[in-house]
Write a structure and sequence with these properties.
By secondary structure, the protein is mostly helical. The chain has a domain at about 30-85. About 80% of the residues lie in helices and about 0% in strands. It has helices spanning about 5-10, 15-50, 55-90.
Length: about 100
């Protein structure tokens, strides 16, 4: 049996839903790196046009990048916690449970 078949069938202690959750979090990490700076830049651009200034775009873009990294860090911690919990569940599973 291939490793991918074991994962989806739950033979290594994980269910398909847990794997989907891990993949979902990993996918969201990339979205955070793109959307946070874009939202910050859009807000900064709007403030610059509204107030007639030229520095809000840069400030808000930098804050958006910082927010993106913060979100990715939180997601990475969540992935590590889910991965650790999945490994602990696999260790606790007895050989009789695998049938």
């Amino acid at each position: 049996m291939k490793k991918s078949e074991r994962i989806f069938s739950g033979k290594d202690g994980r269910q398909a839903g847990e794997l989907g959750n891990l993949l979902g979090i990993a996918g969201v990490m990339g979205l955070h790196m793109v959307t946070c700076p874009l939202v910050g830049a859009a807000i900064g651009y709007g403030l610059d046009r509204w107030l007639g200034t030229k520095f809000f775009l840069v400030v808000m873009l930098i804050l958006g990048v910082i927010a993106g990294f913060r979100c990715v860090l939180q997601d990475a911690r969540r992935l590590q916690r889910l991965d650790r919990d999945g490994k602990n569940a696999a260790r606790e599973q007895s050989p009789a449970d695998e049938r």
